[in-house]
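Example for tutorial group B:
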């Protein structure tokens, strides 16, 4: 009797072992969807600084005082150029993964701005294109959706104004100071912001940190941010990614990657560790992961340009954007 019970188990085990040979195409597709993102240095776009004029600083606020100039946008969603701001958008495909690299150079730090859909503490949401249009953005990306943080965690500055200040032991923080320079704090606490008191334009509570001082930050179970990512399997699984980098003084890069919610393939996209390495290989001095997934938006003018899939998106409450200072 015991032998008869064993036979069905052995047959089932044999059938499971034969699946890769019975449906090889399906297995190859699944494997391809989770393969590492590979590229050669020559495949990556180059950072090329430009000369800009020095304008008067812009008054800080949710809305930029000057609208983009229609004739300054480049053809085919290629970017934007006027004497105070340069935006260059380049796209690459690594395997099945589409990545957009948006290089931005500004003449004054006040051109790097943030905007919320409604005044704080409203949690109202809408499309990033709507927020970008209202703010007069040249180019915009989704921010950290700080309004969704549980218990109002984190220290949040927007356009020089402190909105809230509370310890948040789970997230890494990004500070952008009045010179437009990035400072990343691991496992940020309120006391960690003291060195920049009076000099903070914006601060974000999401992460994790990807590149700090030119070095890749690897996931570490001793770091609360990283531990949260690992436990939610985001460290190894692909997704849409939205990354903000500093390349040099008043020079920035937005990395926007496609993922499963745009391509319909589970596991498709870059992992946190892959996008961190990509940012470092591009020469980023600092790189910080913003809210990704369905919140991933890249807006040029009033148009979303990071994917052709217009169905899968999440409404958001806030953006990071760059404005012109050319009258």
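The residue assignment follows.
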């Amino acid at each position: 009797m015991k032998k008869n019970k064993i036979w069905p188990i052995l047959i089932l085990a044999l059938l499971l072992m034969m699946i890769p040979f019975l449906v090889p195409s399906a297995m190859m597709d699944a494997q391809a969807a989770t393969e590492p993102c590979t590229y050669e240095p020559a495949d990556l776009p180059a950072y090329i600084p430009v000369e800009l004029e020095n304008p008067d600083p812009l008054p800080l606020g949710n809305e930029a005082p000057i609208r983009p100039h229609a004739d300054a946008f480049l053809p085919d969603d290629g970017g934007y150029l006027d004497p105070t701001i340069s935006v260059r958008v380049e796209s690459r495909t690594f395997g099945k993964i589409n990545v957009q690299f948006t290089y931005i150079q500004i003449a004054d730090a006040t051109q790097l701005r943030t905007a919320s859909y409604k005044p704080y503490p409203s949690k109202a949401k809408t499309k990033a294109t709507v927020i970008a249009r209202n703010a007069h953005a040249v180019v915009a990306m989704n921010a950290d959706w700080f309004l969704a943080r549980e218990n109002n965690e984190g220290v949040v500055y927007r356009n020089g104004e402190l909105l809230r200040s509370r310890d948040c032991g789970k997230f890494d923080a990004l500070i952008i100071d009045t010179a437009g320079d990035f400072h990343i704090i691991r496992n940020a606490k309120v006391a960690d912001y003291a060195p920049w008191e009076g000099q903070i334009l914006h601060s974000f509570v999401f992460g994790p940190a990807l590149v700090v001082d030119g070095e890749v930050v690897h996931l570490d179970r001793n770091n609360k941010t990283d531990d949260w990512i690992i436990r939610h399997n985001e460290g190894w699984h692909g997704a849409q990614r939205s990354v903000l980098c500093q390349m040099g003084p008043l020079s920035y890069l937005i990395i926007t990657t496609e993922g499963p919610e745009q391509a319909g393939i589970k596991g498709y996209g870059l992992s946190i560790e892959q996008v961190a390495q990509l940012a470092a290989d591009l020469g980023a001095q600092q790189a910080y992961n913003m809210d990704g997934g369905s919140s991933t938006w890249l807006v040029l003018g009033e148009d979303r340009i990071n994917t052709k899939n217009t169905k899968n998106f999440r409404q958001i409450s806030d953006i990071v954007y760059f404005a012109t200072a050319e009258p």
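The longest strand covers residues 85-94. Compare this with the pattern of hydrophobic and polar residues in the output above.
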